[in-house]
Design a protein that fits this description.
The chain has 182 residues and is of the alpha+beta class. Helix content is 65%, strand content 18%. The protein has 2 domains: 91 residues, 2-Layer Sandwich (S16 Ribosomal Protein, Chain: A); 70 residues. A 5-stranded mixed sheet has the order 4-3-2-1-5.
């Protein structure tokens, strides 16, 4: 019986998340499985992976074949590297201490990269909010200028209309008074 480590789809349309499972290769994608190793949620940024590292390593050591995506996830989490290092120790290529040092160095580098990505995303979001706020301030300033300009034009038009009305009243008043005096 061929055993595979693969993804089992869950979730809803356009919002899938996956369970990482060990299953018989003949069983359907979302069907029976032997053991669940963890979950993978690609909807978050960065993607969220929860994996039982020891069980995944144990299944790889007994010959379970990961699918392409499962292999990438296991590599990302370091299961494949740990398997490779354990193989080197078993062959006598290097000692367990050297393997542990390589593993710890890789793990520290990976954690630093993940933290840098999270920090970068957070900073990018803050910068985007600042830029949006500055753009909104520009738009509000332009609107205020337009309103002030319109109010000034309206006041000038009212003043001109009032002056015209006063001039018309002034012309009309002397015309009425002139015939009365004559």
């Amino acid at each position: 019986m061929a055993v595979k480590i693969r993804l089992q789809r869950h979730g809803k349309k356009n919002f899938a998340f996956f369970h990482i499972v060990v299953a018989d290769s003949r069983s359907p994608r979302d069907g029976r499985y032997i053991e669940e190793l963890g979950t993978y949620n690609p909807n978050t940024n960065p993607a969220t992976i929860v994996l039982n590292f020891e069980r995944a390593l144990a299944w790889i050591k007994v010959g379970a074949e990961p699918s392409l995506v499962a292999r990438r996830i296991l590599s990302y989490e370091g299961v494949m590297l740990r398997h490779h290092l354990d193989g080197g120790v078993a062959k006598g290529a290097f000692s367990q201490e050297v393997a542990d040092k390589k593993w710890n160095d890789w793990k520290a580098g990976r954690d630093a990269k993940i933290e840098a990505k999270k920090t970068g995303l957070k900073n990018a979001a803050i910068e985007a909010r600042k830029a949006a706020k500055a753009e909104e301030a520009k738009v509000n300033e332009a609107r205020a200028e337009a309103i002030a300009k319109k109010a000034a034009e309206l006041a000038a038009a009212q003043a001109a209309e009032k002056a015209a009305a006063e001039a018309a009243a002034e012309e009309a008043a002397p015309a009425e008074e002139t015939p009365a005096e004559a």
